[in-house]
UniProtKB/TrEMBL annotation:
One of its GO terms (biological process) is endoplasmic reticulum unfolded protein response. This is dolichyl-phosphate-mannose--protein mannosyltransferase. The chain crosses the membrane at residues 33-54, 131-151, 188-208, 220-237, 243-266, 286-305, 372-391, 403-424, 430-449, 458-476. Keywords: Endoplasmic reticulum, Membrane, Repeat, TPR repeat, Transferase, Transmembrane, Transmembrane helix. Its EC number is 2.4.1.109. InterPro entries: O-mannosyl-transferase_TMTC (IPR052346), TMTC_DUF1736 (IPR013618), TPR-like_helical_dom_sf (IPR011990), TPR_rpt (IPR019734).
Length: 758
């Protein structure tokens, strides 16, 4: 049932306060919507927000989750907790030139707790926390919207009154089910935005508590103002946008607490009116509170700046092409176009994409581009809203519009490119907080329509329809975020010009072994972005494995020409050159890769293989030793050292290396096998047998394991066991080299023994 009437009268004094407050204009007079008690409203909002994203709970780690979580050493117990305060969100040192300077230690700390409690990288726990956070934030929005839409009023008992229960419920539902939030909830790295939003809202609610009159009769509490500043600092330590709450608290204080008319204030400032004090600046301690907020914000930013360092983050042109444009006009017009796209995602969140960079949105280079219309529409709406917020004679309208615009624009400022270059074109996650302002403006617009509409129920049904469509869109989008394959493929129809989309689809296919399909998408990525070195590198790798060496060399040579410090491409170029038997060039490529990435164990491993092919055994052993020093669990490097020492007759040294390797990687069956071979040649049959059996237990289908154990038994004189394992080896691999000959020799020997015995 849709209610239009107000709360029934009650005899208690608190209801008298409520009725007196409602004599002032508020949205609920005109909004045709459900009226629920506060706790029921919060339960409904929490339940619906849960239903929107519940199907993402068992999704995989996708997209940026790999770098921020799986490859982030800051999550592991061996990394000191103190390091979190000097590393960026991705685990790199903030002082590094390659750091993105995204300083979010508290978010990383929650990832670390997830990892430790789960005992590993199990995505379910990470996803569940994200869903719970969004539900909690959505529930808090009921209180936040009740203040923003209905004003801040307390009863004589100090209890805050909800003067807009219907409007706040509608706005909270709009926020809870907005599909643009899917990236933050279903993508695990979106936790930064969720935690930031949580403490952002707590800071706002804490600031509101400062105005609850205490027993001493003071009009505000300095303690709660300071708590609000502290919560703002915590929000910023979760994500950079959190600091903007201090500015919004100041705006709220001026508009709601002090009821300042901004236009009147501007006029008095311009004309130096002596009655400036009466405008509200010095009343009720406003200047003192704003000073506290400004000092707190400045202190927080200074500390963060000192920790982060003075160098700006390093981004490339493909991340944010407009910011690299030489023309100020081109930069300005494209930034504004990006703003219009963000606004459109709030209004119509149907075309959603995990990444909007790399050609997804071509640059506007001329005023003749039809997309200029989007800029004009955006500024037409904004200027109209700003004029109404400043010039309307209705103080209630001025307050709501200004707060709506404030919450829409101020949290977006860090992502606007106005103060510093950002590493994206459009990012759905950054409009999680600005969507609060959108929900305020939508609800206010709905109230105006309700006031004019004759059939209010039809209008309410239409809004219910929008909410239902958004719920279904959230569920669909959440399911797309469950796996990389679905996520990447969903972007093909939204951003077909985005080279990164094609690259990620190709990488996903290559990881699953579908190289032919992967080649197609990698080629398209290179076509769309001829300087996409990562696509060239991956395509070159696949072509190398398919023995298409000359094209692979061309691609990898082009990649290192475009990006001379691309260490992985130099190493892969060296592998191709080695396969083409151009050994000097291969060696030079390997050393160039190591020059650009000093700690590169895989490159040392491949360099060792080159030296082994050239019979430069000492150099090969040194290269493999470097690989194991840099990466002690590098099984291939250990194995090659053991095999080379074995083949060159250095059995004692091979045994020592094998034992050292097994101490570091005790469950590696290939190392057990290699060391067992060495021990067998050293006539340490019992120990060799034990290692062979352990290796076979770990990998029972390896024909060579059974074959070499049979050779050991053959030498040892355990002919029946030798016969058994020869037969197992031949059953697993009838073409196993040498095994058939050894088996035939054993059979002849057994036949001779039987004849002698007969």
């Amino acid at each position: 049932q849709i209610f239009n009437q107000h709360n029934a009268e009650a005899p208690n004094f608190e209801q008298v306060f409520y009725r007196m407050a409602q004599m002032e204009p508020n949205l609920d007079h005109d909004v045709s919507w459900f009226l629920l008690p506060s706790y029921w409203a919060k339960m409904v909002v929490g339940l619906i927000s849960f239903l929107c994203f519940a199907n993402s709970y068992d999704g995989d780690f996708v997209f940026d989750d790999s770098e921020a979580i799986i490859n982030n050493k800051d999550l592991r117990a061996e990394t000191p907790l103190g390091d979190l305060w000097y590393h960026d969100f991705w685990g790199s040192k903030l002082s590094s030139n390659t750091s993105h300077k995204s300083y979010r230690p508290l978010t990383v700390l929650t990832f670390r707790m997830n990892y430790l409690f789960a005992g590993g990288f199990y995505p379910v726990g990470f996803h569940v926390i994200n869903i719970i956070l969004h539900c909690t934030i959505s529930v808090l929005m009921v209180d936040v919207f009740s203040i923003l839409l209905g004003g801040l009023q307390f009863s004589n008992k100090g209890r805050r009154l909800n003067l807009a229960p219907k409007s706040s419920l509608l706005a909270a539902l709009l926020f809870a089910v907005h599909p643009v939030h899917t990236e933050c909830v279903a993508g695990i790295v979106g936790r930064a935005d969720l935690l930031c939003a949580l403490f952002f809202l707590l800071s706002f609610l804490g600031y509101c508590k400062a105005f609850r009159e205490n027993k001493e009769g003071h009009t505000f509490s300095v303690f709660w103002v300071l708590v609000s500043v502290a919560l703002g600092a915590i929000a910023m330590l979760c994500k950079e946008q959190g600091i903007t709450i201090l500015g919004l608290n100041a705006v709220f204080d001026a508009l709601v607490i002090n009821k300042i008319n901004l236009l009147e204030l501007i006029r008095k400032l311009l004309y130096k009116d002596k009655s400036l004090e009466n405008a509200g600046l010095l009343r009720k301690g406003l200047l003192f509170r704003i000073t506290l907020l400004m000092c707190g914000g400045a202190g927080i930013l200074y500390i963060r700046w000192r920790i982060m360092g003075t160098g700006p983050p390093a981004f490339t042109e493909v991340d944010n092409p407009a910011s690299f444009a030489d023309s100020l006009f081109v930069r300005a017009i494209n930034y504004n176009y990006y703003y219009s796209l963000n606004a459109w995602l709030l209004l119509c969140p149907w075309w959603l994409c995990f990444d909007w960079s790399m050609g997804c949105i071509p640059l506007i280079k001329s005023v003749s581009d039809w997309r200029i219309i989007a800029l004009a529409a955006l500024w037409f709406c904004l200027i109209g809203l700003i004029c109404q917020a400043l010039c309307s004679e209705d103080s209630h309208k001025r307050r709501i519009l200004t707060l709506g615009l404030g919450f829409l624009i101020i949290p977006f400022l860090p992502a606007s490119n106005l103060f510093f270059r950002v590493g994206f074109v459009v990012a759905e996650r950054v409009i999680y907080l600005p969507s609060i302002g959108y929900c305020i403006l939508f609800t206010y617009g709905f109230s105006l329509l309700s006031k004019q509409a004759k059939k209010k129920k039809i209008l309410a049904v239409a809004v219910l329809g929008i909410l239902l469509i958004n719920v279904m869109r959230c569920a669909l989008r959440s399911s797309q975020w469950r796996s990389e394959e679905q996520l990447f493929r969903s972007a093909l129809s939204v951003c077909p010009l985005n080279a990164k989309v094609h690259y990620n689809v190709g990488k996903n296919l290559a990881d699953k072994g579908n190289q032919s399909a992967a080649i197609k998408y990698y080629r398209e990525a290179v076509r769309l972005n001829p300087k996409y070195v990562h696509a060239m590198n991956n395509l070159g790798n696949i072509l190398k494995e398919r023995n298409e060496l000359h094209e692979a060399e061309e691609l990898l040579s082009l990649a290192v020409q475009i990006q001379p410090d691309f260490a992985a491409a130099w190493m892969n170029l060296g592998i191709v050159q080695n396969s083409l038997r151009r050994f000097e060039e291969a060696e030079q490529s390997y050393w160039t890769a190591i020059k650009h990435r000093r700690k590169y164990p895989d490159c040392y491993y491949n360099l060792g293989r080159l030296y082994a092919d050239l019979n430069r055994h000492i150099d090969a052993l040194n290269a493999w030793r470097n690989a194991t020093v840099l990466k002690p669990e590098h099984s291939l490097a250990w194995n090659n050292m053991i095999i080379l020492l074995d083949n060159t007759g250095n059995l004692a040294q091979a045994e020592a290396v094998g034992r050292e390797a097994l101490e570091l990687i005790p469950n590696d069956h290939s190392l057990m096998f290699s060391l067992a071979n060495v021990l067998g040649k050293s006539q340490k049959y019992k120990e060799s047998e034990a290692l062979f059996l352990k290796a076979i237990k770990a990998n029972p289908n390896a024909a060579s394991y059974h074959g070499n154990l049979a050779v050991l038994y053959h030498r040892w004189g355990n002919l029946d066991l030798a016969k058994k394992h020869y037969e197992v080896s031949l059953k697993l691999d009838p073409m196993a080299p040498g095994t058939k000959e050894n088996y035939n020799l054993l059979r002849r020997k057994l036949e001779q023994l039987q004849k002698k015995g007969g």
